[in-house]
Amino acid sequence: MEIRNVAIIAHVDHGKTTLVDQLLKQSGTLDAHEEIADRAMDSNDLERERGITILSKTTAIHYKNYKINIMDTPGHADFGGEVERIMNMVDGVLLVVDAYEGTMPQTRFVLKKALEAHVKPIVVINKVDRPVVRISEVMDEVLELFMELGADDDQLDFPTVYVSALNGTSSLDPDINTQVHNMDCLFDMIVKEIPAPIVDTADGLQFQPSLLDYNDYVGRIGIGRVERGKVHVNDNVTCVRADGTLTKFRIQKLFTFLGLHRIEVEELDAGDIGAIAGLADIGVGETVCDNAHIDPLPLLHVDEPTIQMVF
Ligand code: GDP
Questions:
Q1: Rounded distance from Cα 14 to ligand 1 centre (Å)
Q2: Which neighbouring-strand residues pair with 200?
Q3: Cβ–ligand 1 contact at 302 (below 6 Å)
């Protein structure tokens, strides 16, 4: 199965959550009995550890022969570091913009991060079903924002899909009457426009946690992209720590994402996004290597303030 890694970015209320739910529903990745209310992307049980707030949730859908990992992103400027680290894992973004409201402060903030990371943007004009929309003005605003933020020629050449995430319709044409009753325009755009993850084919594992999560049974989990090689459960590996020291450990569990769930797997392949358990104090930006190839990636910076989240 081919992989696509994409982040979804938007101003609050422009429809990220509704869009991911609709993609999940239409891809058939959700089990019939699953309640969207239990959804992972919007859970309120935010875990906080050492000042790193986990606001991002990952989900994955299957479409045709592709597994599409979708990373949610926090829109707030306080979490700029987290957005940057997510951009490090993906090859493209869906920039969701409300067809009436147009570009807003958080649209600018998250698009800036995406353009800086040189990932491929797809513009998703959402809520085209609203009684009053301003599609052509909104498109002008989007183009202007790309230019203001210094987009290069390739980025300026962004494709656009017009959708109603609520109704599950999509079109490549701004004319609302051309909407079809599925999200295939968007699915096809993702697999066509967002490049497959580039992986280093040299020997040796490289896995860099970009986010942390916590699980009662296995403790701290590092979520990241396998940059190189393969990792299996029970592998003996070495973590190159932030201070340059080495810590050996055994991979206890590996997880990938499917629908709203994190599922246990035996191995993770280069290019995929997954989670590693086995090192109780694994940190963001460190590199997990196999013992024979200690070859750390550049450290990722972590700039989040410690924030008490109240929900
Ligand atoms: P998020 O903050 O970006 O995750 O936004 P949500 O997905 O929670 O959506 C915010 C609001 O917009 C909710 O009331 C949704 O029902 C509504 N919404 C989302 N997509 C659409 C759409 O395509 N059409 C309309 N009319 N409303 C939508």
A1: 6
A2: 228
A3: no
- For residue 12, which atom of ligand 1 is closest to its CA? 2
CA 272 to CA 257: how far, in whole Å?
10
Least confident range of 143-157, 199-213, 256-270, 296-310: 296-310
Strands 92-98 and 120-126: parallel
φ, ψ for residue 89 (rounded to 5)?
A: -95, -15
| Number of H-type helices and E-type strands within the chain | 6, 19
pLDDT digits (tens, 9 = 90+) for 63-95: 999 999 999 887 666 667 888 899 999 999 999
User: What pTM was estimated for this model as a whole?
Assistant: 0.89
What b/e string do you get for 279-305 counting C-beta neighbours within 10 Å, with b at 16 or more?
beebbbbbbbbbeeeebbbebbebebe
Our answer on whether the CB atom of 107 is closer than 6 Å to any ligand 1 atom is no
Q: 186 is written with which tokens?
A: 């968007």
127 known member of a binding site: yes
Q: Give tens-digit pLDDT for 259-299.
A: 878 889 999 999 999 999 999 999 999 999 999 999 999 88
Number of neighbouring beta carbons within 10 Å of residue 58 = 24
d(CA 179, CA 185): 10
Does residue 220 contact residue 204 with C-beta atoms inside 8 Å? no
Is residue 128 marked as binding?
A: yes
Give the helix ranges, DSSP H, for the chain.
Answer: 16-27, 80-87, 105-116, 135-148, 153-156, 184-193
CA of 310 to the centre of ligand 1 (A): 23
Out of 166, 167, 181, give the residue to mutate to test ligand 1, the one with the largest number of ligand atoms within 8 Å of its CB.
166
Query: CA–CA separation, 83 vs 98, rounded Å?
Result: 21
Is 169 known to sit in a ligand binding site?
A: no
- Using a 6 Å cutoff on CB, does residue 18 contact ligand 1? yes
Helix, strand or coil for residue 246? strand
